[in-house]
Amino acid sequence: MNDFQTEAISQPKSVSLKQVIDIKNLRKCFGNQEVLKSVSIKLFNGENLVVLGKSGSGKSVLIKCIVGLLNADCGSINVLGENVNELNSLDLGELRKKVGFLFQSGALYDSMTVRQNLEFPLHRVRKELTQKEIEEKVKEALENVGLSDAINKMPSQLSGGMRKRISLARTIVVDPLIMLYDEPTTGLDPVTSDEISLLINTIQKKYKTSSIIITHDLTCAKETGDRVAMFVEGKFTRIGDFNEVFDTTDEQVKAFYDYNFIK
Questions:
Q1: Which pTM value belongs to this model?
Q2: Same structural domain for residues 112 and 202?
């Protein structure tokens, strides 16, 4: 397989070839440290794209650039037909309503119940909904993550895995077109990690989402990824399905696999 930077892009299998994200020659530096080195990648409609790489490699910087939380130094980011770099704050806010972002920490409001945590984004993003419709969407989202009984609990009463699932419910409750997952299984035990991976696949099918999943978890990558892109030292080096990516003599890719070995 050729270096991915050559634009010899392997196409996703069994998904639409319509592009929902198109990133070209993206570069981002922090001082003298070049974190993104002329990165190019596409996300296709209905696809789960996993971005694999070791911690601190710049994976999270990439998705923060996608939604304008960080400004790239050069290159282009096209999301749902919009050039992110050219949007004003109002239009960027409108675009973000179509993109669900699951933070690594979960980022629930500790002073709110689960119900209030889910209602909050609906009041901001889906202002056309009645209170009854909001209540129905909250219940549906909790059912989809298997936590209907937690609706009146406080985040402090939930386990780490439950908090992650509630965070996922809060993200999908506004019906995003694109999902961005930042290390969705970090800090979870293997059983709970498998549950989160299953939920990612369920959401893809039920909500017809297109997703970028940032992770260093090989099990999550293998279970969720239609395509896997290997991120090494600020650029993509290999892309394809899971087995294609790791069928290589590249010492850096092999070392990553061996360190994060899965059965």
A1: 0.88
A2: no
| Structure-token match 């209030």, residue found | 116
| Same-domain status, 185 and 223 | yes
Overall number of domains in the chain: 2
* CATH of residue 202: 3.40.50.300
Same-domain status, 171 and 183: no
Q: What is the DSSP string of 181-248?
A: EESTTTT--HHHHHHHHHHHHHHHHHH--EEEEEES-HHHHHHH-SEEEEEETTEEEEEESHHHHHSS
> Which tokens is 14 given?
């069994």
**Per DSSP, what are the bridge partners of residue 74?**
27
Please report the beta strands in the chain, taking only residues with DSSP state E, as ranges in sequence order.
19-30, 33-44, 48-52, 74-79, 82-83, 99-102, 178-182, 210-215, 227-232, 235-240
| Percent of the chain topping pLDDT 90 | 65
